[in-house]
């Protein structure tokens, strides 16, 4: 982890510092210290909501679904419905379905090719519409369906030549950065931010999804000994910022801010209610780095390492909900669940942003995990602890495969203790 020798720059602390011509200082910060007005993502904020009981359904590399690429449509559909049935049987009420895992699509997108995880070949039509099916069948089961999109990840390999010839990363090589053996879009390019928004807003407009959901990948997690190659975009657009880190954080905020405004526009135009949320790594900053941070000693901090100022997004009201991935057990020394949850509860208090807690069901019973995870009651204790905080509006479990199979019995214990 990088050592921080002084409190890092934040947009709210910038005051009258010079921005690049056209930089929206008024939109970025209220210099009185109060949160600036911000676009509201979904319609109907402020109405009482039932507790959210969700699961993530991951498709990248076939993590939860499909079991293998190239399944016949009937078999792939049957597997998907089995996972939705499991969510309903466990008395969940929301599914976060990963429909854009690597700058591709699980629906007939006019912007990006079909995902290789469906057929084994990027760009090949699977013969059916997984997102359309998931929305329809989730609603039949009383489940919300949130379209989960990864904004900037292009491929889990580093060879653009392996992408489909029609892929935007092939047609716009200047957009792409190789880093850590993978390919990413450069978040510093305005045309990239606009394009990725166009891509996932297509799903929001065309399908009756209940939400648009981002995971924790904005700028990629740090890779030792490597530098993310955005020199050209920083030279073009980084003027007026005190350093590259501040500029990167502004790029990430622009993505969130602009997406929120565009989701809100869809809601106004259609009369629908679509909620916009993010599930970040759970440590904004350690207290040793910033007095406002959590009492943790995490090796990654979203503010410093992923250039995502999640606390600020909440204070500005850019999100309908936040679902931090609190993937540690009660009593974990470096990042104790019992310390992180109260910090997030204080952070969202009186903001109008709903707080859901991401839960590491995948760790339950894993022999590689510490002793607390061998106890099937660990996750149930999480929910008992979180119930002390009225700001906690629910939990999301990672991930669908474990919700369905429940090898340790941890999910059954949660349902018996909390979802009866």
UniProtKB/TrEMBL annotation:
Signal peptide positions (record)? 1-28
Output the superkingdom of the source species: Bacteria
Name of the protein in question:
Glycoside hydrolase family 10 protein
Instruction: Describe the location of the Glycosyl hydrolase-like domain by residue ranges.
Output: 52-369
The protein's matches in PANTHER family, at most eight in alphabetical order, are given as: GLYCOSYL HYDROLASE DIGH
Query: Which Gene Ontology MF annotations are present?
Result: hydrolase activity
Q: Where is this region: Disordered?
A: 29-48
Q: Where is the composition biased (Low complexity)?
A: 33-42
- PROSITE patterns (alphabetical): TAT
Pfam families per the UniProt record, alphabetical: GHL10
Sorted alphabetically, which keywords does the UniProt record give? Hydrolase, Signal
